[in-house]
Amino acid sequence: MKTGMRVIVGCLFLFSAGLISLGVFLSKGKELQPWHFPAPFFEPFDYENSNFGDYIAWSERRIRASRIDTSDETVIANLKPFILEPDQDCPVSPDGKYLDGIVLVHGLIASPWSMKPIGEYFNSRCFYVLAILLPGHGTRPGDMLGVTWEDWDVEVRYATRLLAQQVDRVYVSGHSAGGTLAVLEAARNPEVDALILFAPALEVDETSRYAGYIQYLGRFFPAASWFELEPEDGVYRYESFPFSAAADTWDLIQETNKALAQNPLDIPVMTITSAEDTTVDVQTTFEFMQGQEHPASFTLLYSQYTLPSYLRTSVQNSNVPEQGILSLSHLGLMTPPEHPHYGVNGDYHYCSQYFGQPRGTFEQCKAGQRDFYGEITEANMERGIIERIAFNPFYDELLKEIDLFLEQVSLDQRGIPLQRQIQDSFPRNIDN
Questions:
Q1: What is the pLDDT of residues 292-333, one digit of tens each?
Q2: CA 95 – CA 98 distance, rounded (Å)
Q3: Cα–chain center distance at 317
Q4: Is the distance from CB of 351 to CB of 366 less than 8 angstroms?
Q5: What is the widest separation between alpha-carbon atoms in the chain?
Q6: Domain 29-267 -> CATH class
Q7: DSSP 369-380
Q8: How far apart are alpha carbons 216 and 369 in whole angstroms?
Q9: Running DSSP on this structure, what letter comes out for residue 229?
Q10: Gap between the Cα atoms of 130 and 151, Å rounded
């Protein structure tokens, strides 16, 4: 009995020593700042009985309580959720509803401002637009530590329910993890009529499944909670990334897969993605789209290299080195090049791939001293300093493709047989 007890105690000691060693290792070189801890904001929100205006006001209070780095009213305004109502001359149905509406869901560590241009585009097409601010986002990175994917899901369901009260056709559009949330909502909610997805996160690196275990070390080693700690100069997105966010993304994907297995989608789905995406698994996205049998479903695939043609897929060349562009990345597929922050002349430069490296490469990239824009693939990185492109240089052509998709969905809703015709050769250079 005593021998068995000694074995148990010895195993517990080794296990504890291992956890301590891991916590020390994961904390090494990480210096936490006040914004790496959750903000003292505890006001709950009544999703059942509040309108979207209430939600915007509550979100603004949350932002102001958290953003100790700025009091800039423009920044605060850009971080808030937003609503764009159709013009008075937009058509309505006999029951007084607008014809179309869309919920916009931004990506992981981003904010609604990344979806504002595409929201304005939809609004110009007489859409009723609701854009949400996912819990833990748009405030301070530390707020990510106290939320789960279920918290994000609650807000998507809330906005979709409100939108369905205003419009006849409900669209949901999301970027990255926002795209995953959109798919999950559509799989559970028969009121969703169509999806428009930007680089949806339908599979990520399998190591993310273990991040959930690591996050518990943060209770004893706060710095160990963080996978990446970088200077927070993004204003509208976080540069630091906690293990909990990776774990929640993994769990969200698993829940979405379960929902799809029980309720396969039978609605039109348009997906915009880059073949060179280094954040999500593009092959999984492509397989998902090949399984979408609705005749209006369509994939716009940007590629740096020549790819064969596929059913209901347009492969578009994104390799334009003479313009300083090698490929499109996971970021900014829905962002115009004129964007004041993420665009060509914007003040944001994505350079995390160089953080901590010697020779001042990170500083050069942050100063805009790039050799090329592109995704941070191994092949691209060998060609010089790569600034991860955060905008879509082919944005106008993208809008034309979305216009065609909206037309197809509208025809389908009226019971008219449809078949999308892709007449261009593959791959198609949209500069021509």
A1: 999 999 999 999 998 887 778 999 999 999 999 999 999 999
A2: 9
A3: 23
A4: yes
A5: 84
A6: alpha beta
A7: --SEEE---HHH
A8: 40
A9: -
A10: 18
